[in-house]
Amino acid sequence: MPVKGTETDLGLYLKRLLKERSLSMRKLSELTDIDTATISRIINGKRKATPDHLQKFAEHLGVPFSELFALAGYPMEEKVQQSSEKFTTVESIQFLLESTNLIDGEFNIESVEQHLAKYEQYVQTEEGTENILKNFGEKIKKLGSVGPFINQIKGMYEKFITKNGTPRELVLIGSALIYFIISTDVIPDYFLPLGYIDDAIAIQIVMKWLSIKTL
User: Fold this and answer.
1) How many CB atoms lie within 10 A of CB 162?
2) What are the CA-CA distances from residue 94 to residues 74, 78, 84, 97 (Å)?
3) How far apart are CA 16 and CA 197, in angstroms?
4) 19-70: pLDDT as tens digits
5) What fold, for 7-71?
6) So where are the chain's domains?
7) Rounded CA gap, 200 and 196, in Å?
8) What's phi and psi for 146, nearest 5 deg?
9) Alpha-carbon span 195 to 199, nearest angstrom
10) What is the pTM of this model?
């Protein structure tokens, strides 16, 4: 079982990588579009790197994201995947997000609801419908079998394309599909499987709305 890393581990490793590649923190800042002061604080253990920081470091320093992720002290994917399979409600998913410390600031389910409300309008346009029909399959291919709500989202898509529901039901379902496709993510999709949990929240919210709203 891998040993959980620390910020000091990450800082020492980044220093070594910069030296090996003859890069300064200022140059890394230019490459990654991360403020030099932020990079310095991360390297010196004064700030925890976010997954987005780590993704940019990995890309421009030519090292695996998972390696930096572990050194930064985040939970390993296997542990998160085992945990995520237990979470089947909005409340429990929110607890998982908060307990893993993967997001800056407080997670707000209301922001997901606001995006869904906005997408209700978009899905009723020709462009919105075409977006779903054109891009859902590709997004599912990237997701594979990862994520606790894969069957729900596939079921929603089937209902949408076959128009199996009232107009109001189809609008609500379409808003969840658009959220899933557009990736208005709390957590970046590159961290699997946790990167899709905000999509799962959107799906659960819509399922709840479908069960309580008069359609």
Assistant:
1) 9
2) 17, 19, 11, 5
3) 34
4) 999 999 999 999 999 999 999 999 998 998 887 788 889 889 988 877 887 7
5) 434 Repressor (Amino-terminal Domain) (1.10.260)
6) 7-71, 77-212
7) 6
8) -80, 140
9) 8
10) 0.53
